[in-house]
Amino acid sequence: MADLIIKGGTVVNATGTAEADVVIDGERISALLAPGVADSIGIDGNASRVIDATGKYVIPGGIDAHTHMQLPFGGTQASDTFETGTTAAAWGGTTSIIDFAVQKYGERVEDGLGHWHELADGNCAIDYGFHQIIGGVDEESLKAMETLVDEGITSYKLFMAYPGVFYSDDAQILRAMQKARERGLLTMMHAENGPAIDVLAAQLAESGKTAPYFHGIARAWQMEEEATHRAIMLSDLTEAPLYIVHMSAKQAVEQVAWARDKGKNVFGETCPQYLYLSLEKQLGARSEEWGDFEGAKWVCSTPLRSEEEGHLEAMWQGLRTNDLQMVSTDHCPFCMKDQKELGRNDFRAIPNGIGSIEHRVDLLYQGVVDGRISLPRWVELISTTPARMFGLYGRKGVIQPGADADIVVYDPNGHTSIGVGKTHHMNMDHSAWEGFEIDGHVDVTISRGTVLVEDGRFTGTKGHGRFLKRDLTQYLV
Ligand code: URP
Ligand code: ZN
Ligand code: ZN
Fold it and tell me: What is the DSSP pairing of strand 94-103 with strand 127-134?
């Protein structure tokens, strides 16, 4: 007897679409049946539960491979806990996250990782894995990198930005990449020239240009292009595969495209904010209440870029041509009150980050509605490639027998209004997406056979989510 059948829907995988009923036994998918077969072999009447998905898409649960719950940043910490952040994720059709365990300069990697396990264990509503931030490359952290794969942590992040906090210089990057190549770790890179940015930012602030808008001016696209190129060359030299995170500059994407055309093992990720939000929007975002400071809602790094200069369009193009392979959120929420406010008099003190974990699946679906990407490409970007890139494929990222029953029933005729007091379960006092109207709606979210969200209610529990020990990236050769 089946535990659950999702009937009558259109199953969408990265490989294509099919009319099929999905049969779930326990935590796994046990069969995909052609329409009518469940009735004819009598499974239907015996199933414990049937969900009617007529007229809806049945897709693998979203995998958000770039989140920062409780990240310490700029004297405060990201406002979502693992409980609030993963609950919001479930509302938005995401059933797995990969968060960043943090090692700062002067700390032991093992301690940072242990702390991240403590924060997440027993608190997550959905499954979760970790990348490891290496914020201080030295003999000790290089040694610690050797055991990460055994712990199911098969990717790590370096920063070419944030001197004095997470920054690595070229020598450190080279050594980390050599170690990554040896152990099969995927190098994730925050590619911005931090030391040069800090000079520009100081010059702006000293000349009285302290409003949030100037955050993006200091973090000029040249800083992203240059760092992206440098990271590519270091990866080429060491033969360590490279994944550039949160890309927003069209010139930086051109670098990734150039590297890929030359056969290099280089990948690029962008985020919803770089597809829909712009420097122009940030500049224009002024209300009586916040004055010029309302722009702090959109302070993130890499920064929002100019729509007029074609950066947003270039991100969409990259997704279409596969020069960019993934869309993650870089979910790093901060409230205005007491957090973003820290930088009221100086943009350099505004904690960097935007919260989007609840909206990624919906926002990317607009690409389908607008004719920018196909349905299978939507699924590939939000679920299948993240699974393949980060060693989860087969278990996650696909609707097929044997896979975890992480499934979303998505209504293309539904509607989602984004904003505080509407769809908003993230622990933030504002939404960077306020007023966005979405064609489409997450009707049901299922994680390993357990229904987490349906009929506009959250039925999941904190602690349902399990730690994901990940395999090596599928893109390693
Ligand atoms: O603005 C951002 N991206 N905040 C999170 C930290 C990072 O660099 O990913
Ligand atoms: Zn970053
Ligand atoms: Zn990030």
Answer: parallel
Helix, strand or coil for residue 55? Answer: coil
pLDDT in tens, 220-254: 999 999 999 999 999 999 999 999 999 999 999 99
Distance 395 CA to ligand 1 centre (A): 28
Mutate to test the pocket of ligand 1, among 189, 300, 305, 357 (most ligand atoms within 8 A of CB): 300
Tens digit of each residue's pLDDT (9 = 90 or more) over 118-174: 999 999 999 999 999 999 899 999 999 999 999 999 999 999 999 999 999 999 999
The model carries a pTM of: 0.97
Using the mean position of ligand 3's atoms as its centre, give its distance from the Cα of residue 163 in Å: 16
How far does the centroid of ligand 3 lie from the alpha carbon of residue 94, in Å? 17
Query: What is the whole-number distance in angstroms between the Cα of residue 274 and the centre of ligand 2?
Result: 14
Q: Is the pLDDT of residue 290 over 90?
A: no
Query: For position 136, what pLDDT does the model report?
Result: 87
Assigned CATH topology for domain 4-59+404-458: Urease, subunit C; domain 1 (2.30.40)
Rg (CA), the chain: 22
Instruction: For residue 56, give the nearest of 6, 3, 5, 2 by alpha carbon.
Output: 6
Give the residue extent of every domain in the chain: 4-59+404-458, 61-386
For ligand 1, what atom is nearest to the CA of residue 301? 1
Structure tokens at 99: 């968060």
What residues line ligand 1, using a CB cutoff of 6 Å?
Answer: 68, 190, 246, 300-301, 330, 332, 352-353
Position 262 pLDDT exceeds 60? yes
User: Ligand 1, from 131, 134, 246, 331: best to mutate by most atoms within 8 Å of Cβ?
Assistant: 246
Q: What is the DSSP string of 461-477?
A: -TT---B------TT--
Both tokens of 242, joined, read 């490279």
| Residue carrying the six token digits 């996250």 | 97
d(C-alpha 355, C-alpha 97), whole Å: 14
> Which residue owns the Cα nearest ligand 1 atom 4?
353
- The residue whose CA has the least distance to atom 3 of ligand 1 is 301
Residue 214 scores a pLDDT above 90: yes
- Is the preceding omega at residue 302 within 30 degrees of 0, hence cis? yes
What span, in angstroms and rounded, lies between the C-alpha atoms of 33 and 9?
11
CA of 171 to the centre of ligand 2 (A): 19
CATH classification (class only), 61-386: alpha beta
